[in-house]
Amino acid sequence: MTGTAAASLAGFTYRYPAGLMDALDVAELEVRDGLTVITGASGSGKSSLLRVFNGLVPHFHGGTIGGLASVCGHDVITTPTRVLATQVGFVFQDPELQSVYPTVERDVAFGLENLGMQAAAMPQRVDEALERTGIAHLRGRAVATLSGGERQRLALAGVLAMRPRVLVLDEPLSQLDEAGARAVVAILGALARAGTAVVVAEHRLEQLGLLDARILAMEGGRVVNPETVPSTRITGMRPPTDASFGRPSQPAWQLSGVAAGPGRSPVLENLCLEGRRGEVVALVGPNGGGKTTLLRTIAGLLAPLAGEVHREPGRVAFLPQNPMALLHRATVAAEVAWTVRGDSGKGDADMLINELGLAHLATRDPRDLSTGERQRAAIAAVLAGHPRIALLDEPTRGMDEAARESLCRAIQRMRAAGSSIVIATHDKNLAGALADRTISVGGGVARELVPVAVA
C-alpha cells in the first residue's frame, strides 16, 4: 500500500452513552490505499471501528471519546458527518435500513443527489454502478420485492455511484450467494488496485483471502494479532446417520401443486414438497431465486396463488432475514420470555439463552448489540418453546464461528425433540453440517438434490 494514510487513529478510545466500558481502545492504526480486512468475533468492536471512519462514532451515537482520529485529512471529532460522507462511502450490515427510495434506479441516485450532482450527469453514474454490481436487470424493481442479497448489492451500488475516496463495508458478503460474493470481491479488488482505500469487516474470509489484503483483527475493542482469530469454518458438525437417529417420521408440512409469489405473478410453480418431524431441510440457490418466498409460504405468511399448503397443528416459528423486525422489547431476556409466555417453555428459553452464548447479554437492549449478537437474540426468541415447525432465513448472518457452532447444537437438539426445521442459507458449511435433505430453489422451481455418494 502506498501514499498517505486515508485514515489514522492514535490513542483513540470510545464508549457508548450507556456503556460500562470502552467499546474501542485503539493505540495506533493507519489505513492506506488498498484492501484492509477486519476480522473478529461478534461484539469485538468491528462495527464501532468502521463507524469512526464516517463520523457516526461519535456524532450520531454520542458517548465519550478520546485521542485522535482523522479520515481523508479531516479530524473526525470536529468534522460533521455530512462532510465526511462526501469522501467516505459506507455499506451497513443491515441493507434493509439503507434504502430510501421505493425503486432500485431511484435509490442508487440518492447519494448523488446529496452530493449536489447535476441531474444530467446522474444517469451514467447510476448505469455504471448497476452494471458493476450485477443488478442492472433490477433497475425498475420495487426495493421491497428484493431478496436480502439483492438489497446488499443495491446498497453497494448506491455507494459506488458516489465514487468515494474511502469505501467501508460491514459484512458485505453475509447474504450473498456464491456468484454474488465472487462478483463483489472482484469489485473490491479492482477498487483497491485502482487506489481506493477499501475497509471490510467480514466473517466469510474464504474469497476475500484470495486478494492482496492487509488483515487486522479486533478483540475487546482492541486491534490484536490476526493469528489469534479462529477461522470461519464450522468443524466437527455432521448430521446424525439414520442408524444413530432413526428416519424422520410423518410430514409436519406439505405443499401440493403450489404456485407462490409476493404478487400476482408466481416466483415458484408446481411445488410438491414436504418436511418431516425430526428433520432438517436446507434450501439453497441464487439470490432472488425464491427461498424466502418458499419459507413464507410454508409459514402461512404468504398465501399460495394455487395449490394447497398443509401444516400440522402447533407453533410455527419464522426467523426473517432482518432480525430487527422481531426485536421490540427492552432486553434480550424479555424477548425470549415473551415467546414462551403462558406455557411451560421457560426452561427451554433459559437453555437457549445459555446455549447461544447470550447469558451475559440477557439484560441488554437488542438494539444496542452487534449484528451477530442481534441475530442470536432473534434466533433464541424464535426457537424458544419447542416449535413444531422452525423456518430460518439466513440464520448465520453476521455470526462468528463460535456462534455458528452453538446454533448447530441448538438445531440438532430441536431435531432430536421432533421439530421440523427448514433453513434457507448460502452458508455451505452450515448446510453440510445439519441438512438431512437439500432443496435447490431457483428458476421458478424447487427440486431436491440427491446426495453424492462417497467412495
Summarize the structure.
This protein is α/β, with parallel strands linked by helices and 455 residues long. The protein has 15 helices and 19 strands.
Task: Give the helix/strand layout.
Blueprint: E1 7-15, E2 24-31, E3 34-39, H1 46-53, H2 56-59, E4 64-71, E5 74-75, H3 81-84, E6 88-91, H4 104-108, H5 110-114, H6 122-132, H7 148-160, E7 166-170, H8 178-193, E8 197-201, E9 213-219, E10 222-224, H9 242-245, E11 251-260, E12 268-276, E13 279-284, H10 291-299, E14 306-311, E15 316-319, H11 332-339, H12 346-355, H13 371-383, E16 389-393, H14 401-416, E17 420-424, H15 428-434, E18 437-442, E19 445-449
Parallel strand pairs: 3-8, 3-9, 6-7, 7-8, 13-17, 13-18, 15-16, 16-17
Antiparallel strand pairs: 1-2, 1-4, 4-5, 9-10, 11-12, 11-14, 18-19
Helix pairs in contact: 6-7, 11-13
Fold and architecture overview:
The protein has helices at residues 46-53, 56-59, 81-84, 104-108, 110-114, 122-132, 148-160, 178-193, 242-245, 291-299, 332-339, 346-355, 371-383, 401-416, 428-434, and strands at residues 7-15, 24-31, 34-39, 64-71, 74-75, 88-91, 166-170, 197-201, 213-219, 222-224, 251-260, 268-276, 279-284, 306-311, 316-319, 389-393, 420-424, 437-442, 445-449. The protein is of the alpha/beta class. The strands form four sheets. The protein has a six-stranded mixed β-sheet, with helices on both faces. A six-stranded mixed β-sheet has the order 15-16-17-13-18-19, sandwiched between helices. Helix 11 (332-339) packs parallel to helix 13 (371-383). Residues 231-246 have low confidence and may be disordered.
